[in-house]
Every structure is written in structure tokens, then in C-alpha cells.
Design brief:
single chain; about 280 residues; mainly alpha; two-stranded parallel ribbon; 2 strands
């Protein structure tokens, strides 16, 4: 301990249990230890070993949700990046020039989200930041190796994909209806991914949308639009979605304006022959 060195018990220690690398980073960050030559050789061997089985994301993801915003946790993940540890997720994982900046941005976003009462899973956000600059095949393999599934996998996949670049200009120019459609199609992961790489204007719009816009609802209910002449069935949902878009754009603000908008929408549907 006096030498401030991080050591392994034997050369195959990290091959036998690669999660020791993550624990090593925790100790090194907390106690200011430097890996000795034996640790570095054991790490290099583990990174070359091809038969290490998949390990769960709960162990190897930058987890401990309560501590992700702490500087010590950021230092720990920085150590793992420097060691090349994420190549255990996939041999083709590469640390890019933006990797550390993405992680710093993720912590910044999380602190702001908590202050604004935006619900964000910090472990998912950290993983998204780590995968954001990887190729799509590498990101997909990492998610599978970490045994991330269900909604978490879908959100990370959407955020790490390049798809957000196709709509980032809409975020930049404040197209709120486009934001809603993108969020509905790709989920929150897309918004998080766009925020990580976006400029100040894009980030401000996304924060507003996550805080207020996505929860917006028209003043009218389903019964209200039926009373306004919309036949019961799928058209009710379409009418409400139309009102939500108008509300997001600030084009309707009262229930009277919504009734008028529904009447106008019905005329358009009748003209197109979509009323059946």
C-alpha cells in the first residue's frame, strides 16, 4: 500500500474474473493507486483472451446509479478507457477523441436532469455515452454481451445509432412537432443521443421537450372531440394527436380554439375522403 501500486495475485487473475478490472479501477481511483507491471501484463493477457464468457451489465456497466455524477466515478471510467478495458465488451471497441468528452457531457446532462426532475437512468446514459462513437455493429455486440435487454436495450440502441443525425436539424430549428414524432418513434434514447452531440441550441430545445413538451396533452378529451363531430373509432386518436401537435406549436391555447381546430380538421379529412 505504501508504494501506491495496484497488483494482481497471479498472472491469470483478470482472465479468471474480468470484473476484477472494474474493481481495480474503483480501488485505483479511490486510493490513488497506479497499476504495477504485473497488473499491466495481466490486463494485456485478459484483453487478448478470446474465451472470456459474457458478463452481466449490472457488473461491468459504469453502474452505481447514485454515484455517476461524482468526480470519482468519472475518474474511474476514465481509467477504464485508458486501460482499454471496454475491449472486453467487444474486441473492436475503440476509444475515440470524443470518448471522455461524451462521458463528461453525460454527467452534465444527468445533473441538469435531476435538477429539472427529468427521469433518466444514469447507467443507461453512461453506457450510451460509451457506445455513442462506436460503429453500429460494435455497439450492438456490446449491448448483447452485457446482457442488456428490453426497453433499456432499445433506448441505448436508438441513442447510439446514427439516426439522430437525420433529425438533428429539426431539433436545432425548434420544430416541436418533429420532436414529438421522433421521440415517439425512437424513444428517449434518440433525444439523449442528440443532446450528447448537439450544440447549445439543440440541447436547450431537447431539455425543454423532455421537461415539458413530451408530457403535453390537448385540453380536449376523447368525448370532447366526439362531441365536436369526430366519429368514434381510430379517428378520435388521430384528432387528439392533431390537437397535441397544434398545442406544441402554440397554435391552439383554449378548448374553444381546439373545437375550431377539430372542425377544420374534419373538413380536411372529408375533402380527402378519409372519413369512411
Amino acid at each position: 500500500m505504501a508504494a501506491r501500486r495496484l497488483r494482481v495475485l497471479h498472472p491469470l487473475s483478470l482472465v479468471e474474473d474480468p470484473t476484477r478490472i472494474w474493481r481495480g479501477a474503483r480501488y485505483a481511483g479511490a486510493l490513488r493507486l497506479r497499476p504495477d507491471a504485473g497488473f499491466e501484463r495481466a490486463l494485456a493477457l485478459a484483453l487478448r483472451w478470446e474465451r472470456i464468457p459474457p458478463f452481466p451489465g449490472s457488473v461491468s456497466m459504469p453502474n452505481t446509479r447514485s454515484s455517476w455524477t461524482r468526480p470519482s466515478h468519472g475518474a474511474r471510467v476514465g481509467l477504464l478507457l485508458g486501460w482499454g478495458a471496454f475491449r472486453l465488451w467487444d474486441a473492436s471497441y475503440r476509444v475515440t477523441a470524443h470518448s471522455r468528452a461524451r462521458l463528461a457531457s453525460a454527467r452534465l446532462f444527468l445533473r441538469g436532469a435531476r435538477g429539472a426532475r427529468i427521469t433518466v437512468d444514469s447507467a443507461e446514459l453512461a453506457l450510451l455515452a460509451l457506445l455513442f462513437d462506436q460503429s453500429r455493429p460494435v455497439a450492438d455486440r456490446c449491448v448483447r454481451r452485457l446482457a442488456v435487454a428490453g426497453g433499456a436495450a432499445a433506448r441505448i440502441d436508438a441513442g447510439a445509432a446514427a439516426t439522430w443525425r437525420d433529425v438533428s436539424s429539426r431539433w436545432a430549428r425548434g420544430d416541436r412537432v418533429a420532436w414529438r414524432k421522433c421521440s415517439g418513434r425512437f424513444g428517449e434514447g434518440l433525444a439523449f443521443g442528440a443532446w450528447l452531440a448537439g450544440g447549445r441550441v439543440v440541447r436547450r430545445h431537447i431539455e425543454w421537450f423532455l421537461r415539458e413538451g413530451r408530457a403535453g396533452r390537448p385540453l380536449s378529451s376523447g368525448d370532447d372531440v366526439v362531441a365536436a363531430g369526430v366519429p368514434r373509432g381510430p379517428l378520435v386518436g388521430q384528432a387528439l394527436a392533431h390537437l397535441r401537435d397544434l398545442s406544441l406549436d402554440g397554435r391552439v391555447r383554449t378548448i374553444e380554439e381546439e373545437r375550431a381546430a377539430v372542425a377544420e380538421w374534419m373538413k380536411g379529412m372529408a375533402t380527402k375522403g378519409d372519413l369512411g
